[in-house]
Automatic annotation (TrEMBL):
Gene3D superfamilies: 3.20.70.20. This is Ribonucleoside-diphosphate reductase. Provides the precursors necessary for DNA synthesis. Catalyzes the biosynthesis of deoxyribonucleotides from the corresponding ribonucleotides. PROSITE patterns: RIBORED_LARGE (PS00089). Belongs to the ribonucleoside diphosphate reductase large chain family.
Length: 820
């Protein structure tokens, strides 16, 4: 038995760097735990757990967990039989040749169609040809956390037995085929092959709804929906119906309730008084909690309110943990749609007036100077006694802002989103009344239209050139620009295809999506790219790289959409848009400045020939929007990179998702420490310091400086990097903030800086925990060190520790997965 176990371990570690050391560690683990169970499924679980237990020793153990998990997946999905003896249980490696893997793909497609899970049109593809393109080895590109997430909720299952039918490569090909259905029939195989190569190499990953549903019988592929709830019982209830249908098919919703009159406001039809926004928010909360999206995710909805609404204080209380449960909405998210006028009065320490929307119906439809003038006119009416006394109230702007920030510290809500920047910099006709669930989508809404956006993200870390002169290291500024351009061009086409193959749960969403054809191409993997290029997050070099990369992606996304317009036609509202005037996203900074009558404090440098694009976009654009940088909390797990613009939370930490708790180790740091021959000596110290290198003096200072934890990065750096990106992005950026200090004045300066620099939004606020649990994974000298964090129980004082450790949803907050 011992000899056969040794052979199994050798097979498992074959091809990995330092395989002998990994094998020795596993043998020591087996000596303590005993041999694996005889049942193959239980044996696979055993090997996965054993590998994960050793992950603090080296990131390569993640590869071993992946191999063990894939072994079980192949047995299940490919209906393969284990060996007649106990060899299958002893070895986590289920031998499967590429030919068997590929041939089973054709059976999978046909079986999926017969079971009613896959679109019958997939049978029209040349399945044998596409099967030959499948590369089984790419399954190992996905890290264990991503693979476990795919297996738990993404891969297609048998509708009755719930047996997995799909492997990761089958998923990529199924999605590619589903998108290619929008292409000409004689070109579908070609485009499916191209989309598959793009996604299976993890250079580009579509959003979660697209991964869930492309190629299925219910292809709801869009990520985000925006709605404006009107002040009538009919529309409030109609919106509830719409929200239920949208959430059922994996859509994340952002809805403005600013127009709803406040509590006590007259209701003439019944000669009574309004109950205000809270009961309706509570109703939406119950609705969205009931929608489980097929058991794979919870329903997700964010309510937006402008801070002049008379019930702003009650809105702030919706997410508090204590108090009357009927005045709380635990399943919803909340956000403020903040006009410039409010922040101007905060800076000046002036009075702020709250109004009942019934008496100021024009305010939700105005922004910029027009809003400021109308708002001031209403204040004059209030002071002159021309409005009922119950219709307004005067408060201190700065005091209200501090109350908002204090609530943010306690609950991570409400998110702060900037109304005027969102509207003044919009390329589309119409008024934007809110952002989406994750604060990166800015699209106009109307009673006839629910705005829709379609998302996917480029993986920047997969577009870096390796430097042969050093193990795992890269030359500065060594981005593979031609490869990145090719990815952007293909990704924009894939996103445009989403619009045409999409299933629309409500007609108002279809109408809006076909009128504007918005897509939101994002980028993830910035922090990993910084690390691989030898940059510290937030230093000038990293800010310049963000500027260059986002400019490059924006340029080629816009150009691709303009060229698609020549092939497929422009979006319906093109003639009313700024694109038709030859305007570009960078131009709108001047318009925002004009509204504010003050500078937007952001670097304006450009490197690409933007003037050559003006005549091109003037001639037509396929898409009303082209870019939005979403949180990518879930798809970054699948891609094995860092999410969006976010930093590494820590160099070692645990992430909680709906699919379980997973340990993450900064592989780039480990590679560098191994090159310095330090990893073996310092890994326990890094664990003891909960992934913070600042106190690990054995590590050279330049290395420690380049790998800070999220809370050690100055908040100004988060704002600066987002501002450098936002100037090129026609929609928005989901910008998480990580703050060490709980000082409200310092916190106010961070949010005011975000506003001054032209950001359209901020997202979750994460506060550094005040207390930490004793680590159970390393020995700690209690006399020398204060209590530290445990891998298995990350500490958090407000339910929001590391992204992904809160609200039982995937990283970055509830609903991030709806975006990406």
């Amino acid at each position: 038995m011992a000899h056969r176990l040794e052979e199994a371990i050798r097979a498992w570690t074959r091809g990995l760097a330092d395989a002998e050391r990994l094998a020795a560690a596993l043998e020591r683990g087996l000596a303590l735990s005993g041999p694996p169970p005889g049942d193959p499924a239980e044996a696979n679980t055993f090997w996965v757990q054993l590998a994960c237990h050793h992950l603090p020793l080296h990131p390569d153990f993640d590869r071993l967990a992946v191999r063990a998990a894939l072994s079980g997946l192949y047995r299940e999905a490919l209906a393969a039989s284990p060996a007649p003896d106990d060899a299958a249980a002893l070895s986590p490696v289920f031998a499967l040749d590429a030919a068997t893997y590929r041939s089973a793909f054709v059976h999978y497609i046909r079986q999926g169609i017969e079971l009613g899970e896959l679109d019958p049109r997939l049978a029209s593809f040349d399945l044998a040809r596409l099967a030959r393109l499948v590369v089984p080895a790419r399954d190992e590109l996905i890290p264990y956390a991503g693979l476990a997430t795919l297996m738990d909720r993404y891969l297609v299952r048998h509708p009755e037995s719930r047996r997995l039918l799909e492997t990761p490569q089958y998923l990529w090909m199924r999605v590619a085929m589903g998108l290619a259905l929008a292409e000409a029939p004689d070109a579908r195989d070609l485009w499916a092959a191209r989309f598959y190569q793009l996604m299976s190499t993890l250079r580009y990953v579509p959003s979660t709804p697209t991964l869930f549903n492309a190629g299925t019988t219910h292809p709801q592929l869009s990520s985000c929906y925006l709605s404006d709830v009107l002040d009538s019982m009919d529309h409030i209830l109609e919106s509830a119906t719409d929200f239920g249908h949208l959430a059922k098919y994996a859509g994340g919703i952002g809805a403005s309730i600013t127009k709803l009159r406040s509590a006590g406001s007259p209701v003439r039809g019944i000669n009574g008084q309004s109950s205000g926004i809270v009961p309706f928010a509570h109703m939406y909360d119950a609705l969205i909690k009931a929608v489980s999206q097929g058991g794979r995710r919870r329903g997700t909805l964010a309510l937006y309110l402008e801070p002049w609404h008379l019930e702003i204080e009650a809105f702030l209380d919706l997410k508090r943990n204590a108090g009357d449960p009927y005045l709380r909405t635990p399943s919803l998210d909340t956000a403020l749609w903040v006009p410039d006028e409010f922040l101007r009065r905060v800076e000046a320490d002036e009075a702020w007036y709250l109004f009942d929307p019934r008496y100021v119906p024009e305010l939700p439809e105005l922004f910029g100077q027009a809003f400021g003038e109308a708002y001031e006119a209403r204040i004059r009416q209030a002071r002159a006694g021309q409005l009922p006394a119950r219709a307004f109230r005067e408060v201190c702007a700065r005091g209200l802002f501090r109350e908002i920030l204090a609530t943010l510290q306690e609950t991570s809500h409400p998110w702060i989103v900037f109304k005027d920047a969102g509207n003044a910099r919009s390329m589309l006709p119409g008024v934007i009344h809110s952002s989406n669930l994750c604060t990166e989508i800015f699209l106009p809404t109307s009673p006839q239209e629910i705005a829709v956006c379609n998302l996917g993200s480029v993986n920047l870390a997969r577009h870096l050139r390796a430097d042969p002169a050093g193990p795992g290291r890269l030359r500065a500024a060594d981005v593979d620009w031609p490869a990145l351009q090719a990815t952007v061009e293909l990704a924009v086409r894939a996103l445009d295809d989403v619009i045409d193959v999409n299933f629309y749960p409500v007609d108002k969403a279809r109408r809006s999506n076909l009128r504007h054809r918005p897509v939101g191409l994002g980028i993830m993997g910035f922090a990993e790219a910084f690390a691989r290029l030898g940059m510290a997050y937030g230093d000038p070099a990293s800010a310049d790289l963000v500027d260059r990369v986002v400019e490059f992606v924006s340029f080629h996304a816009i150009r691709t959409s303009a060229r698609l317009a020549r092939e497929r036609g422009s979006f319906a509202a093109f003639s009313e848009s700024r694109w038709a005037q030859g305007r570009l996203p960078l131009d709108t900074l001047a318009e925002l400045q004009s509204h504010r009558r003050r500078p937007v404090e952001v670097d304006r440098s450009a490197r690409l020939p933007w003037d050559t694009l003006r005549p091109l976009v003037r001639g037509g654009m396929r898409n009303g929007t082209v870019m939005a940088i979403a949180p990518t909390a879930t798809i970054s797990l699948v891609a094995g990179t860092t999410p969006s613009l976010d930093p590494y939370y820590a160099n070692v930490f645990a992430r909680q998702t709906l699919s379980g708790k997973f340990m993450e180790v900064n592989r780039v740091l480990v590679d560098e420490l191994e090159a310095l021959r330090l990893w073996e000596d310092v890994r326990e110290r890094i664990v003891a310091e909960r992934g913070d290198l600042s106190a690990v003096e054995e590590i050279p200072e330049p290395v420690r400086r380049r790998y800070p934890t999220a809370y050690r990065i100055p908040p100004e750096a988060y704002v600066e990097l987002a501002a450098r990106a936002q100037k090129w992005v026609d929609m928005g950026i989901s910008r998480n903030l990580f703050l060490q200090s709980r000082d409200l004045d310092a916190m106010a300066e961070v949010y005011l800086a975000a506003w001054r620099k032209g950001l359209k939004s901020t997202y979750y606020l994460f506060m550094a925990p005040r207390m930490y649990a004793e680590p159970s994974t390393v020995q700690v000298n209690k006399a020398r060190r204060r209590p530290r964090w445990s891998f298995l129980e990350p500490a958090s004082t407000n339910g929001h520790g590391a992204p992904g450790e809160h609200c039982a949803l995937d990283g970055g907050g509830p609903g991030c997965e709806s975006c990406q």
